[in-house]
User: What shape does this take?
Amino acid sequence: MSCTQSLAGLAKDCYANRGGIVEALVANYDDVVSFTITSGVITGITMDTGKKFKSYNFAKNTGSLTSTYTIDPASGVKYVTSQLLLQFNRMNTTARVELTALALADLRVIVKDANGIYWLLGYDEPVNASAGDGQTGTARSDANRYTITLEGDSAEMPMEVDDSIIAGISA
Assistant: This one.
C-alpha cells in the first residue's frame, strides 16, 4: 500500500535570496504555553506570565541554521535534525556564564534568516546544546570567541513564525 499525499507543486522562485541568519531569540522550553498555527505558519505564541524570548547578538556572518532529514524506509523512521551555530566574539565572564546557562537548558529558538523570515526550532521537542568551545586564537588576527551549537529533533522542518508577533514575545 502506498502513502498518498496531496501535492501542490512549487512555482519557480524569482525573488532575491540571501544566505545566513541575522537574529536568534531564545526562551526556556516550558516558558511557551501554546501556539496558534494558520496554514502552516505560527501566527501566535502564548508565553507564561512575564516570560519573553531573549535576543542573542552574535558576530556578523558567523551564524547558520542547517536542517537535515533522516529517513530510513526500512524502519519507517523520518525526522529532522536542526543545528543552529552561533559565534560570540571576545571571551568574557558575562558571555561564559550565559553560554553555560544555554548549555544546560531545554530551549525553544526563533531564528531570523537573512531574507527576513523567522523560523521556530523546538516546536515538538526541546532544543539543547550539542557542542561549543571558547578559543583565544594564536595570532593577533585570530578570533577570540565562544561558539555554541544548539540542536533539536522534530517531526518536520522548522515552521515559519509570522513576523508580526515577534515584538510581543521578545524582550
In short: Residues 21-166 form a domain with the Pnp Oxidase; Chain A fold (CATH 2.30.110). The chain has a mean pLDDT of 94. The first strand starts at residue 21 and ends at 28.
